[in-house]
């Protein structure tokens, strides 16, 4: 099993991020924070990394509270991340699978919640490409 789910889009990075934001809202998720990794590295003096690369931290507050209430260690995996980057002229959208992360805790109840979240986020990626 891959630890990630990645799709390719013909949209620009900006168009893709906008679509992700809209599609997340349909599932009561939102973007908490967006990191422009390329820009941040350049500000830190690293000019060798030129690949356009964004990292979005996303969350559904109700689901986050539920899993954190069950096991505080889940906070090590939150919020969920979605990456949007350019590779070989195409926009890639990806995320680490929540089931891969939660699976480290060996908790069947959390695994069921992670499966639900993973399905939603994969759907968001598919609709956003």
Short description:
The chain is α+β, with helices and mostly antiparallel strands. The protein is built from five helices and five strands, in the order E-H-E-H-E-H-E-E-H-H. It has a five-stranded antiparallel beta sheet.
Report on this model:
The protein is built from five helices and five strands. It has a single domain (4-128), classed as 2-Layer Sandwich (TATA-Binding Protein), CATH 3.30.310.70. The chain has a five-stranded antiparallel beta sheet. It is an alpha+beta fold and 129 residues long. It has helices spanning 13-25, 37-43, 61-70, 98-102, 108-128, and strands spanning 4-9, 30-36, 53-59, 80-87, 90-96. The protein starts with a strand and ends with a helix. The mean pLDDT is 96. 23% of the residues are buried.
Number of helices: 5
Q: What is the number of E strands?
A: 5
CATH superfamily: TT1751-like domain
What string gives the helices and strands in order? EHEHEHEEHH
């Amino acid at each position: 099993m891959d630890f990630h789910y990645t799709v390719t889009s013909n949209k620009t990075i900006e168009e893709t991020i906008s679509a992700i934001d809209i599609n997340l809202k349909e599932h009561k998720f939102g973007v908490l924070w967006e990191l422009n990794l390329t820009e941040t590295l350049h500000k830190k003096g690293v000019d060798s990394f030129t690949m356009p690369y964004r990292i979005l931290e996303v969350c559904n507050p109700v689901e986050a509270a539920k899993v954190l209430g069950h096991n505080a260690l889940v906070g090590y995996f939150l919020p969920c991340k979605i990456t949007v980057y350019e590779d070989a002229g195409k926009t890639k959208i990806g995320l680490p699978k929540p089931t891969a992360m939660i699976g480290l805790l060996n908790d069947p109840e959390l695994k069921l919640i992670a499966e639900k979240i993973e399905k939603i986020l994969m759907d968001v990626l598919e609709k956003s490409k």
